[in-house]
Write a structure and sequence with these properties.
The chain has helices at residues 8-19, 53-56, 64-68, 77-88, 94-102, 104-113, 146-160, 211-218, 236-243, 302-314, and strands spanning 2-4, 25-27, 45-46, 70-71, 118-120, 126-129, 132-135, 141-143, 164-166, 170-176, 181-188, 191-196, 200-202, 285-287, 322-324. The protein is an alpha/beta fold. The protein binds flavin-adenine dinucleotide. Flavin-adenine dinucleotide binds at residues 4-10, 27-30, 35-39, 41-45, 170-171, 203-205, 228-230, 232-233, 236. The site of flavin-adenine dinucleotide has 32 residues, from helix 1 and strand 10.
């Protein structure tokens, strides 16, 4: 079997196929150093259905004392459905939603079994309130080491099960006899290669790194958006499938766009870690270049608004906004706001600002 890509989706597919007895080869467009796709840039926060601390204890170690002295959030199947409906205004595929939600806990257990280690998400989904630790937002767990950790754990599992990877090998088209796919054409260092296999899995991301496709599907101006993740996802998997007649489906102009450092590099940079995230806007007033507000910053927890407010920022004049914080919030800001990558201006009065 050929698996195209080497992010979370590809690694999971490859490992499961190998566990079921298939011989598996992965093709990865990036070099080994840059491999791992957006999965490697992710925070590693895991949203899955769970009923309380006893479920969490099957995934990671939580002492009796921690279990007793913490307000553990829940994310029951019903709560998960409610959230999904809320953020999509009910425009979500019912079958895929059901699969995602009802099998999510099982997926976490599968990942654990492959050697992925989880830790409590103290960093982004918890706080001490009136002397007691509380989790909120239904995301009490993250992968140890975040996205890079996730890819590393799965990579180790893949190596252990004997999965081969060809790096710097970009899949370009499916070999298709009119009835079935029998392999894939790829390119490495300008040379055309043919791989034949009884099954091909396309797990090579979306088109977020392709400025021409962003303009085509998201609209004029979107070629200028900064990409938070890998530069290797050019939409080739989608193109290959469409070229042999796959039916386009889903929300092609939908996007996950977040507030991000204005002067960040064009693509994600792993060495910058979280430095470009700008998630503290619920504590701010967000204003555009003309000094006008354009969203309700505190409409909900940031987890419910961040992926759509980025788009609102992008629609403003010059495609940016200021997040204005009062000094009172200083100690509540995430560390990246105080780091050297943050563009900031301070003043003692609003007029001066
Ligand atoms: C900054 C950031 C933070 C995030 N935080 C979280 C989080 O905390 N929690 C969460 O659940 N999600 C998070 N996400 C989203 C998450 O990272 C993605 O949804 C997920 O990683 C997608 O996995 P994937 O395997 O489908 O794609 P990817 O991980 O992007 O993998 C695609 C792979 O395909 C390869 N490829 C592309 N084209 C070709 C080709 N033609 N031939 C061969 N290989 C090819 C790429 O090199 C890559 O290896 C975050 C994303 C970003 C960018």
């Amino acid at each position: 079997m050929i698996v195209v890509g080497k992010g979370n989706a590809a690694l999971c597919a490859a490992i499961e196929a190998r566990n079921a007895g298939a011989k598996v080869l992965m093709l990865e467009a990036a070099s080994e150093d840059e491999s791992g796709g957006n999965s490697r840039f992710a925070g590693g926060m895991m949203r899955f259905a769970y009923n309380g601390v006893e479920d969490l204890r099957t995934l990671l170690e939580i002492t009796d004392e921690e279990a007793r002295n913490t307000d553990w959030d829940t994310n029951t199947v019903d709560e998960f459905y409610d959230d999904l409906y809320k953020v999509t205004s009910y425009r979500t595929d019912p079958k895929l939603s059901e699969l995602l939600i009802t099998r999510s806990f099982e997926a976490m257990q599968w990942l654990r079994k492959q050697g992925v280690r989880f830790v409590l998400n103290y960093r982004a989904a918890s706080a001490v309130v009136d002397g007691r630790r509380r989790f909120f937002g239904g995301m009490a767990v993250e992968v140890s080491g975040g996205g890079p950790g996730l890819v590393q754990f799965l990579d180790q599992a893949a190596v252990k099960t004997g999965i081969d990877v060809h790096y710097e090998t970009r899949a370009v088209s499916l070999i298709y006899d009119g009835e079935k796919v029998t392999g894939i054409n790829a390119k490495r260092h300008g040379k055309v290669l043919q791989y034949h296999a009884p099954a091909v899995i396309l797990a090579c991301g979306g088109f977020e790194a392709n400025p021409e496709w962003r303009t085509r599907y998201l609209g004029p101006g979107w070629e200028l958006a900064k990409v938070r993740g890998t530069r290797f996802n050019m939409g080739e998997g989608l193109k290959m499938a469409l070229d042999i007649g796959a039916c386009p489906y889903g929300n092609w102009s939908g996007r996950h766009t977040t507030s991000w450092e204005r002067h960040a590099p064009e693509f994600g940079d792993l060495s910058l870690d979280h430095a470009c995230h700008r998630h503290c806007y619920p504590l701010s007033l967000m204003i555009n270049a003309e000094g006008k507000r354009f969203v309700d910053e505190g409409a909900d927890f940031y987890g419910y608004t961040y992926a759509k407010y980025g788009e609102q920022v992008f629609k403003q004049p010059e495609q940016f906004a200021w997040q204005v914080f009062d000094a009172k919030t200083h100690d509540m800001l995430r560390p990246e706001y105080l780091g050297k990558v943050a563009t900031r201006v301070s003043a003692n009065t609003l007029e001066e600002l």
